Amino acid sequence: MPELRRQLVACRRHGQTIAFTNGCFDLIHAGHVQYLERVKRLADVLVVGLNSDASVRRLKGAGRPLMPARDRARVLRGLRAVDYVVVFEADTPRALIRTIRPDVLAKGGDWATSTIVGADVVRRAGGRVVRVPYLAGRSTTRLIQRILKGYGCQG
Q1: How confident is residue 133, by pLDDT bands cut at 50, 70 and 90?
Q2: What domain range is 13 assigned to?
Q3: pTM of the model
Q4: Are 18 and 12 in contact (CB under 8 A)?
Q5: Is position 155 within any domain?
């Protein structure tokens, strides 16, 4: 994290803006890619906070994540829109947002503005909070259900 902080300080010194979003990003699909591309258009640098394996289990249940954090992070890093990935252990990214101090905090359109964790922190620092629409009909849960059904399993 200290290295990321140093790199972001350098980005700011060069006049670049920083966007932040977060999530589990288990089984990355076209909806995730489009979402991250849209978030990247809001700033020069995109930092993705990635829930740790333990955090995903607490949030999504014992069967998740399907892929370990190191693999999810590797896939995210491979996307052109993503500049940095940082894994966090907490259930929310509030502490990470305080540390990164993004100019833009983005969440999916399914989040009500009033429920976006860290929105108050970002606004107080002069940043903005943006709700970004998802690609309709795409979700990890739906994908898992289709896979299970395709293999004759109940899900």
Answers
A1: confident
A2: 2-150
A3: 0.89
A4: yes
A5: no
